[in-house]
Fold:
Amino acid sequence: MEKGNQTIIFEKSPVIIGTYSIVGPMEGKGPFGTLFDHVIEKPEWDEPSFEKAECKMHRHAIIHAIEKAGLDESDIDSIISGDLLNQMITSSYSVREFDCTYLGLYSACSTIAEAMTIGSLLISGKHFKNIACVTSSHFCSAERQYRYPLELGTPRTPLSQWTVTGAGCMILSDKGIGPKITMATLGKVIDYKISDVNNMGAAMAPAAAHTIITHFKETKRMPVYYDAIVTGDLGKYGSELLLKLLKDAGLDVASRHFDCGAKIFGDDEKKYQGGSGAGCCNVMFCSYFYNKLKKREINKILFIPTGALMSKISSLQGESIPAIAQAVAIENME
Amino acid sequence: MEKGNQTIIFEKSPVIIGTYSIVGPMEGKGPFGTLFDHVIEKPEWDEPSFEKAECKMHRHAIIHAIEKAGLDESDIDSIISGDLLNQMITSSYSVREFDCTYLGLYSACSTIAEAMTIGSLLISGKHFKNIACVTSSHFCSAERQYRYPLELGTPRTPLSQWTVTGAGCMILSDKGIGPKITMATLGKVIDYKISDVNNMGAAMAPAAAHTIITHFKETKRMPVYYDAIVTGDLGKYGSELLLKLLKDAGLDVASRHFDCGAKIFGDDEKKYQGGSGAGCCNVMFCSYFYNKLKKREINKILFIPTGALMSKISSLQGESIPAIAQAVAIENME
Structure:
């Protein structure tokens, strides 16, 4: 590719041969509740801590995605994984249970797109045959780490989002039947100097716009090429901003745009802007969108998970929020 | 490759065309002090916080590695980066200053090997031309985050290691002169149920042994093939354990083994087992080993950074320490 290009075209496009999604009770009560493979009844899921419950969900998603793909654990070459907890303990403590190589990634809530990209590189390059891409988040462990322990009952602001409790896992393979990952447009770190950690949608919208504009410019595709343009978790306000930024750049995607964060909880006002977290857009892809692709109700998706790259320390030190968005094209080939 | 293989052979091996290392004052006083490109005089480096000082080092390493490689920032397609701070703020806040795509990785102190592997995949697959791989750590920010704030003056245990203050950056390219990355052996997450967070060498040695044994088995190479077998930061005691584990498996590497952590501070008793941290083996590679490769004093290195994948939370919850080691072969080709 020429320098300046952020888009990778996979010569040998990997097939997504199976997916699995597991979510918490609140997600189960939302409009997509019946589509998830498993809904846990309580956030603790019989574990002594929320971190251990998150780990159990992560592991559960991997085991059952492999099973749903018709494979055995011994068929998996590598697990590519990430999560939001400090030092990514959900990923590393889950993966130690599997006899596979491991690549740990962190780009906050956009991690699943990075995992799909690197998994596709490994399969397209004929290095590996089957790869599990997995991410998760948990409302209770995320609140404790990023904000306040739940026990304090701290009020939320109108622009805040609600971290999704959920884990999604997809199996990429060098053969089989299913939609394929054909391209990835890597993102740049964009900082619009938003410093309100309760308004991540505003921090992430410019990064999403940048990656989407770049994708269409470099691939010479038009928005109508895709049946759905699916962003990660900009939330309701962040989605409005994205559409405005894209319109200013001459791209009208309103009719085919879907933001996983804005939709996952439906119109539940107590969830404010909607969902977020590394599990949010992943569980939506692994259920609702994967089902639609398999049934050929839609055939081409541009999937753009978004991530806010701050930490509690950086916010306390007065820093703004850098953000990133990685885009992946998933297509049913004829 | 056949299933069961953890080793990737890069068809088009990327060239390491330039490196840059920057370290803190203690590292500068060590036996390799004169080999580093830059030694900062004070850990704060004129910044208002240790985190911001680490970020400045990280950024400085990227800027100067690009310069030393004879390139311009606009030549760099992607920055692949990781660090030890929560939510990897060193990486994301550094990278926002550059107009390049970004891939964030986390595998603790073994992150640089993961970065070299993914960078090599991107170049070998002809997707990108020039990539910066960078990692860092800072003693003062790491102590505050993983253990206790320095102000408390907490005593250290005999098996503890000293997080290296330093950042290293290497530029991988599809052309140019220099040693090449020919192979990578991905690691598995190995947990020997060590739960003493002050004894990371013991937790990481089995992971290093596993990856090294796998590398020799899969490549059918013998230890004599390499001029140096360089582990990350097992420290003095961890290195002894590694040599014992390898000897039990029939591999004698004692004469060519070098552990960056055990050596970086020389025999300074106050550093106990030696150095650690995502910057440790990276600054050693970017200075001492890269110089030796360039001068052809050595021609073949197996580089095996090691990582301990725990967090403060997992330790407090009584968990043991899972570990990983990724191996990368770097060779001067005739």
